[in-house]
Write a sequence for this structure.
């Protein structure tokens, strides 16, 4: 019995360590621009949309899902980033890869109090495969010409100084 309790306690510590590592913030790094494949998705009311629709704007493309706990943690900072750049050509595009309908996505966003993001759907998760992201959340920084200039796998603090600097550099036309 004691051995079982010790094993359970050790397992709990291991799991707590893994959970803590999973929620650590990823650094926001930029790189030289590289072309992205065409990305098609849909509006919340089912109309076709694509990344090309945002050419001429800086895009913070966040791939996420309602069932993703780290996405829930990260989403409010993305909302605050959009608020910070509300009057500038910056779009924080939250692309849900949920298979569930738009009602589930809307309910999730309402539950966590997110209001400013530009929310789209990709129920077949084609964008995640096209850009080669292994998990969620994943965020890609896109310059005004539609090129990838940075990628963050995992949670980042999108309203923090590092992210704000990266977005400002892209607004100014600087890359890398």
């Amino acid at each position: 019995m004691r051995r079982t309790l010790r094993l359970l306690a050790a397992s709990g510590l291991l799991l707590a360590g893994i959970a803590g590592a999973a929620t650590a913030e990823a650094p926001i790094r930029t790189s030289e621009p590289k072309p992205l494949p065409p990305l098609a998705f849909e509006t919340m009311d089912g109309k076709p949309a694509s990344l090309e629709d945002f050419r001429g704007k800086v895009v913070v493309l966040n791939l996420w899902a309602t069932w993703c706990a780290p996405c829930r943690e990260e989403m409010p900072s993305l909302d605050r980033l959009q608020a910070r750049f509300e009057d500038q050509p910056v779009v924080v595009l939250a692309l849900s890869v949920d298979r569930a309908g738009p009602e589930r996505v809307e309910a999730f966003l309402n539950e966590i109090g997110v209001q400013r993001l530009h929310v789209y759907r990709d129920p077949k998760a084609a964008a995640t495969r096209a850009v080669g992201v292994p998990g969620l959340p994943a965020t890609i920084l896109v310059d005004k010409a539609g090129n990838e200039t940075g990628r963050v796998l995992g949670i980042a603090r999108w309203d923090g100084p590092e992210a704000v600097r990266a977005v400002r550099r892209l607004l100014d036309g600087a890359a890398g």
Observations:
- The radius of gyration is 18 Å.
- Residues 26-171 form a domain with the Glutaredoxin fold (CATH 3.40.30.10).
- Confidence is low (pLDDT under 50) at residues 1-22.
- The CA atoms of residues 66 and 107 lie 9 Å apart.
